[in-house]
Amino acid sequence: MSAPFALSLQDLAPIAEGTTTAEAMAETIKLAQAADDLGYTRLWYAEHHGMPSIASSVPEILIGSAAAHTKNIRVGSGGVMLLNHAPLRIAEAYRTLEGLHPGRIDLGLGRAPGGDGYAMRALRSGGGEEFSAYLAELMAFDEDSFPPEHPYSRVPVSPGGVRLPPMWLLGSSGASAQAAGQLGIGYAFAAHFSHTPAAPAFEAYRYAFKGTEAFPRSRAMMCVSVICAPTDEEAQYLSRSQAVSWALFTTGEQRKLMSPEEAHARVLTPQQQSVIDHQSTLWIVGSPETVRDTIAEKAELAGADEVMITTTVHSYELRRRSYALIANAFGVTPRA
């Protein structure tokens, strides 16, 4: 079957037990090239801090690397946690990326800190201001729209002669949907960790939407967690690494992503098992047919224009295989 929606992927740059950080970094390039060849629409990198199992802490560096090693796929942030950064720095970084790779960069923005309270303090996150103020400042820098009396009106954004790439607002409830619509930017809903239904948020987004040059029409993306293998049984087996990793993270025990063998042997506390029982209802795990039918049903119910997939398994090779099986199941046209 051919999907009635675009397919994209998110890479958290997982660091698996038994591998080095350098190997995890090299894998980001391999996955980007594989995604480009498979025909995926876009590839986004998240911003996470203080997590031993995730190497994606500075999206713009990974974006620049991936874009330089691919030809067609759009590459972006999913997303920049704006409260961790001065808006001027983000404006400069993403204008630079857009200048280097015109027409292939996305700027996804989120309001979460991307880490725990300790990481927030280390980043000096927020500065006491609200996300909306940071977002307004970022857009004013890009549009050169500060009032003449504003001190920032005297600050030219470098590099000049290029605008920010298309912007997306990330959300895990309906709170950001209306704002994204009013701004005329894309909206991405985090269905991979939010139990809130995506459909009401998409409806609010489309109702408020006002077209812009970057987005003449609304664009609603649903992000899902998927593990695909040739059989349901193998996919379930591989998913144990993600399940145990999530349980350990939420109960304050962090480490690199363990193998499925070790994860199955791990004895969990009742609290950790409860975390898995709750969160695993959001994960899509199975054979290509199972995964295809489940994704298609969820996308149709939500009214998604695009589905972004994130996959967490211990083996980098099997993670790439998962993305290949999904693309083939939906009849995505390869670029290779």
Supply the key terms:
single chain, 336 residues, alpha/beta, 8-stranded parallel beta barrel, 13 helices, 15% strand, Luciferase-like_dom, oxidoreductase activity, acting on paired donors, with incorporation or reduction of molecular oxygen, Luciferase-like monooxygenase
Write the layout of secondary structure elements.
Layout: E1 6-11, H1 21-38, E2 42-45, H2 59-68, E3 74-81, H3 87-100, E4 105-110, H4 117-123, H5 131-143, E5 167-171, H6 177-183, E6 186-190, H7 198-208, E7 220-228, H8 232-238, H9 240-250, H10 260-265, H11 270-279, E8 284-286, H12 288-302, E9 306-310, H13 316-329
Parallel strand pairs: 1-2, 1-9, 2-3, 3-4, 4-5, 5-6, 6-7, 7-8, 7-9
Helix pairs in contact: 1-2, 1-13, 3-5, 6-7, 9-11, 12-13
Could you explain the architecture of this structure?
With 336 residues, this protein is of the alpha/beta class. The chain has one domain: TIM Barrel (Alpha-Beta Barrel). 43% of the residues lie in helices and 15% in strands. The chain contains 13 helices and 9 strands. Strands 1-2-3-4-5-6-7-9 form an 8-stranded parallel β-barrel, surrounded by 8 helices. Helix 1 (21-38) packs across helix 2, helix 1 (21-38) packs parallel to helix 13 (316-329) and helix 12 (288-302) packs across helix 13. It is globular. The two termini are 20 Å apart. The model has no long low-confidence stretch (mean pLDDT 93). This is Luciferase-like monooxygenase. It holds the Pfam family Bac_luciferase. One of its GO terms (molecular function) is oxidoreductase activity, acting on paired donors, with incorporation or reduction of molecular oxygen. To bacterial alkanal monooxygenase alpha and beta chains. InterPro entries: Bact_Lucif_Oxidored, CmoO-like, Luciferase-like_dom, Luciferase-like_sf.
